[in-house]
Amino acid sequence: MTFDDEPAANLRPSEAPTSVIVNALRWDILNEWVLYLNDDRHPDKTAEMSYVWGFIKRDFGGDALRCLWSKRETAYPMFAEAVWLLHREFSEGAGPEHHPLFDGLPPIPAEILFRKIASSSAVAFRELTEAQMLEVLRKAPKDYAAMR
């Protein structure tokens, strides 16, 4: 996803609205998940290495991921909310509430979702290691739930 639209084109990553970031990541992840589920090269969709090479290691969302991690630095509650929303939609099965494209799709295990975001973020945001990002992502939904 790129921010080529006029209203967002000149924003610094930390200024991007959280809703824009979540929407961009939502559709990028949904697209990647559907591609993975329909990929015949990985017949056992629950095998660890199938997740790794068929889903986790496919990069996506450079601009949106940079904005997400910038939110962590400037407005942690917004970062935590964004991660919580993605976790809720993809791992807890709340996606069909937002769009019928989620209907019938199996949930993405939370650990796999967080590994996917961390793996792709490692290219877009180099201030943390992938392992550090994974720890932050695991913690963010709990932090947001505690803030509510």
Fold and architecture overview:
The chain has 148 residues and is mainly α. The chain has helices at 6-9, 18-37, 48-56, 62-74, 76-90, 110-124, 130-147. Helix 4 crosses helix 5 (76-90) and helix 6 (110-124) crosses helix 7 (130-147). It is globular, with a radius of gyration of 15 Å.
Key features of this structure:
single chain; 148 residues; mainly alpha; 7 helices
SSE topology sketch:
Layout: H1 6-9, H2 18-37, H3 48-56, H4 62-74, H5 76-90, H6 110-124, H7 130-147
Helix pairs in contact: 2-4, 2-5, 3-6, 4-5, 4-6, 5-7, 6-7
Could you tell me the mean pLDDT?
A: 84
Radius of gyration: 15 Å
Q: What's the story with the biggest beta sheet?
A: none
Derived from helix and strand composition plus strand pairing, the structural class reads: mainly alpha
Shape descriptor reads: globular
By DSSP, the count of extended strands is 0
User: Helix and strand succession?
Assistant: HHHHHHH
- Uncertain runs are none
Strand content: under 5%
Share of helix, binned: 55-70%
Distance between the termini: 29 Å
Treating each run of at least 4 consecutive H or I residues as one helix, how many helices? 7
Provide a brief overview of the structure:
This protein is mostly helical and 148 residues long. The chain has helices spanning 6-9, 18-37, 48-56, 62-74, 76-90, 110-124, 130-147.
